[in-house]
Fold:
Amino acid sequence: MTDTLRGSEARILFRDKDTFLAEENPFEAMMERFDHAAKLLNLDPGLYKVLRNPEKQIIISVPILRDTGEVEVYTGYRVLYNTSRGPAKGGIRFDLNVTLEEVKALAAWMTWKCALVNIPFGGAKGGVVCDPSTMSMGELERVTRRYTAGIIETLGPDSDVPAPDVNTNERVMAWIMDTYSMHKRHTVTAVVTGKPVEMGGSLGRREATGRGCMFVTREALAKLRLSLTGARVAVQGFGNVGSIAAELMAKEGAIIVAVSDKSGALHSTTGLDVADLQKWVAQHRHLAGYPKADTITNDELLTLDCDVLVPAALENVITRKNAPRIKAKIICEGANGPTTAAADKILEEKGIFVVPDILANAGGVTVSYFEWVQDRGGYFWDEETVNRRLETIMVRSFNDVVALAEKHKVNMRIAAYMLSIDRVAAMHRLRGMYA
Ligand code: NAD
Structure:
């Protein structure tokens, strides 16, 4: 059967032979939750059809010259899932595992996430199938500029605003902004967010997703009558989201008992020194080799005895296979889609309080919204203002989801979907159907 599948499809379906095929398809996983929430909302069948389909899907070839003089052609995607509430908003990832199904799922999640925190954006996502770790800086710049030129018709502060995601950063955003501005013949800072502060980026954007995770973890612990001070936290992924969530939680008194990245996982029952780990990673690129902690496997990290588990690396890491062994009281989903739909049911039966991805990691897009507002107004806020406004939105959104979960007796994820889908649907009803 694998022979009949193209590479990317095969990767989605057969990444782990023992896992049920559809469990790892991110778009199907998103749709399973969408269907559940839509049913509870009694969503009109016409609107159900509209919201189940992406508005626009772009597939392009991205040809570049390698440093050797050879031509390489990569595949690039941009999916605009829904723009009824405002310009499409969503990151761009450069990764070998990028597939159209994944980009579609991530674009849908962005739609629900923006609606959940009630900011005036729709949802999008983009990606290029490539391995940046094998590319020079010049090659990375050429891929970025050619990809930007390929999707330039959708881009714009009023139509589609990218941001960084896995393996892209503020350097890449600066190239996108420059390429777009050269085509427009004037500087357009608001076309991307997550830019360097010197060129219109927002203070606090780099830390925003991790900071948002910290705020909602604090609120979730309070809900269970626990405190962040003294809470034992395990964090999977030590990149932008994971390392900053760990840093900020440690500053609030949490004990970071484990962290991991793709090179392996580290464990200390008395707590890891997050600042020291960040220094180590800055020098050595990976956690591997860090001498002041025990090593464990990534699977052991996920099933560690702790109060809070923060999956902040990639999709489909909490599955029907390991969910029964998870011991954390709270899971705060820093990554997008870390839990499969099958695992959701197991976690619910075990009474684990899950702060779903579209809420837990919404701090990033919230401060991206602040950046877009600042660029358009040409007036920049101090970091304290950014962080305070972020906290207000995260705490309010957390409380909105808790209230809905309690009202409908559903878990936090389904409540989050219900709130978001209802907001997007309300906009469609008000705007009516242009046909
Ligand atoms: P990143 O590239 O900075 O970091 C990813 C980290 O995960 C790295 O430390 C990497 O080594 C680690 N990792 C990769 N494979 C792993 C594995 N098998 N086991 C353990 N660790 C592994 O990316 P990021 O920006 O921190 O994004 C992480 C997740 O958070 C993604 O799902 C992304 O979509 C989501 N997210 C990011 C933002 C943001 O603002 N950066 C916002 C919302 C959601």
Q: What stands out?
A: Residues 164-167, 209, 236-242, 260-262, 298, 312-314, 334-336, 361, 364 surround nicotinamide-adenine-dinucleotide (CB under 6 Å). The CA atoms of residues 84 and 427 lie 6 Å apart. The mean pLDDT is 94.
